[in-house]
Amino acid sequence: SAVISQKPSRDICQRGTSLTIQCQVDSQVTMMFWYRQQPGQSLTLIATANQGSEATYESGFVIDKFPISRPNLTFSTLTVSNMSPEDSSIYLCSARTGQETQYFGPGTRLLVL
Amino acid sequence: EDQVTQSPEALRLQEGESSSLNCSYTVSGLRGLFWYRQDPGKGPEFLFTLYSAGEEKEKERLKATLTKKESFLHITAPKPEDSATYLCAVHNAGNNRKLIWGLGTSLAVNP
Question: Does B90 touch chain A (CB under 8 A)?
Fold first, then answer.
């Protein structure tokens, strides 16, 4: 299994600013992911964080808006850039171990005013 | 197209009233089916992974089963603390990155 922590747990931000979310896993994992979850909806994959290289983004998400870093096997960051109220959501870090199972962090609740 | 459908969308039970949640799936080569529990404002909590038809797994009052087309999450004698949204996801053979998610079943257990 994997225990995942995220910082911050929540934040309120002004339109036009940026927020960086940190994700730390307690063990080395094969893959790390970033998801977004709008209120009352299921999870939407933003991107796969690749160690030492550019993240792989899903359709509708771009690097300029959601830059991602993964400098090692246990740490990743997601930045939400030039925020608007539509970016208000829960952002979730996830990691997959050597087996298929994915574990999730507690999430970062973001409110953009 | 790969798809996961969960039913019902919402379920309200009395404490002790057993029931089942359904997750039906259409994927090209199942590599795993996953059940998660999610409390409001929190990340999904992993419950079970099922890999092949006929497989069953249990944890406390929960039991997950798998057939070639669907999975059931059986809840026996539920308690109010079992109230949560239960999410189902599948991992297919052709796409290593992405889990395919259902929309979840919101369960409320009344005391």
Answer: no
